[in-house]
Predict the 3D structure of the following.
Amino acid sequence: MNEEMADLQESTNELPDLRETVFVYLRHWRWFVFSAILCLLLGYVYVKLTTPLYKIETDLLIKDNKAGGGSQNDLLKDLDLFTSDKIIDNEIQILKSETIVEKVVKALHLETSYFSTTGVRKRQQYGNVPFEADLLKPSSSAAYEMTLTIRMLNANEAEINGRRVPVDIPVKTEAGLVRIIPKPISDGSTNEPLNVKFNDIDDVIQQYDDNLKVDAASKQATVLIITLEDAIPQRGIDFLNKLVEEYNRAALDDKNKVTSKTLSFIDDRLNKLVDQLGSSETNVEKYKSSKGIANISSQAQILLQGVGNNDIELNKVTIQLEVLQNLENYLQKDNDQPSALPSMLGIDDPTLLGLVQQLGETQQRRVALLQTVPETNPLVSSYTDQIKGLKQAIDASVQNLKRGLETTKQQLTAKNTNFESTIRSVPAQERGLLDVMRQQHLKDTLYMYLLQKREETAMELASGVADSRTIDQARSSRKPIKPVKPLIYMSFLLVGLIIPTSVIYVKDKLNFRIRRRQDIEAATDAPILAEISHSKEPETEGLIVSKKPRSMVAEQIRTLRTNLQFILPESDQKVILFTSSISGEGKSFISLNLGGSIAMSGKRVVILEFDLRKPKLHAGLNIANELGLSNYLIGKVSYEQILKKIEAQENYYMITSGPIPPNPAELIGNGKLDDLLKRLKKEFDYIILDAPPVGLVTDAQILGHYADVTLFIVRHNYTAKSLIKSIDALYRGKKFNKLNIIINSIDLQNVYGYGYGYGYGYGYGYGYGYYQEDEGKKRSVMSKWLK
């Protein structure tokens, strides 16, 4: 039960803190409204001045040529030399490579920017401009910071920064050597000036490369979604379409490198065979003419056909061995360029052909990857390992194939030897004709064979297509995607709320003065007896409780008088000491008016002006100060001479300070004060001691021994928080009897309605004619609402 009561008490104590924290900010609601409106206006200006961006997108399908099935593909998959997900990653890198982007930028002339000269915001132009400006040679690096104003005058002249120049001819300008090329436009306006800015092509490439996004549609898909943000939709569409075009062209060029190399090899062999074939045919004609032989016998014809077929097969084997030797030489060299891969003409082994094709593709991807990442990248190392494994597999396959071809070559050579022995039995003249016809038949058959291969290779080269297909052409969003107006306005509104919140928070944290009741309660356990609001009347006005009895301050003084009865319940407890930490906290004002309030209740009250160094109570009451406490304490005057009646209030008397003495502390402690207080206690119901600040002199601590209760004055927004620690030390050390705190001069204009903790209802009715100062006030509906 005790724990529940403790939790309840703790939660109750926390509620005022939370409410106070909230209302600290709500007090300044006008600043929040002003800041929010201002920031929203700035957000509106920002939206209007910001160039809108559109989203351009195209979809590209990457064909997976390895998905076809078959023993060859199964064998390559078993070797784990290539996987599909690496294809997508590589193609993404290729699409974003600076090489491809540079080709697109140059093809579309994006290194030159054109801006209209009208309007507050510079609007970039694209496509429909009357001329094209090329910076042939920049004057310096500062050329890319300059802006030229160019206007077409007619078909033959243009104007650059007010200077007439011919078109299609390089001219020298501030930016460097510039050439103006006229272009036809759709609307026919050619005299509108444009601001032209030349950009460093490397910066343009980097800008588009950073802006370009290429993502796979999903982990399993081979569809790439290519997006770009651009202020001009048509420019973004042209860029993406050109990007895909350049990507396909580069892929096709890489794919046709081996085919082109094979075609070149065939053409070279054909060129040599043409001369040899012509020479062979000439030899046959000459031999027939010289020997008078029209034809050979049927037996010799059969023999010639058999020898020719054997020679053709032997020649094919020889070509295959030569191709394998070239491939073997390539493998032995440290060359990973796909363009150096030798031709595989005549090789029909599917395993070897598949491995060589795989090697070329892997090398191409490695070269493409090196354009965007360093060689130390793990992905590059993976390709290097794949290439090494492929070369080892190709070398083993080459050795096996070579052994088989060598055996075939030996068999064909032996067969040729048998044919030659048979040819020796043929008559001499016929045997000679057989020899020259054999050479002519061999060259002719080989020539036809190469012609066939040439046509096949040429058809393969002509029918080559890229391994990608555009699913959707580039298209732009209908509305701008940036700036996002709701997000911008929300952000500016949030900033508008954060700025005053931060200022109030920092100001509150940096404040070292007492602003809230909690500031006192957090620093000391000394009880707070009363809270007095700020009075607009100067302290020299004296008794506010008599002059304005219906004022708020007068009512609060009465509340203090009532609370005082609870801490001075005994009739013999009559002495009340007033002090403070520093001067100016209002102890004299409160002590004087508290005495007046007590006197109004029929009690006899006397107030002693013990601030012997800076007395000011008598001045507010227009009471003479020639004789007072200082005179009495040195024994110069009698009791009757220093006791003076306060005319403004019945039953209220005062003993002024008298002339300022050189030793106030010694006077107070010389023993005369005891006699004075004894007599005063007999004649008066209450004795009020208005002491000097305890933080400056020791007078108050000396007087504290005579006081039955000590009222310590703390002034709102004046007393430093650090001084509360001193009050707590006095309270804990019991240097003063029944020490209580009074919070003075609370500014209700700043805390009314929000100052929970500055009192418990004393402000009720303020502004509603309850107090005297509220009479005669007339408020408009708006002022009442604002209040």
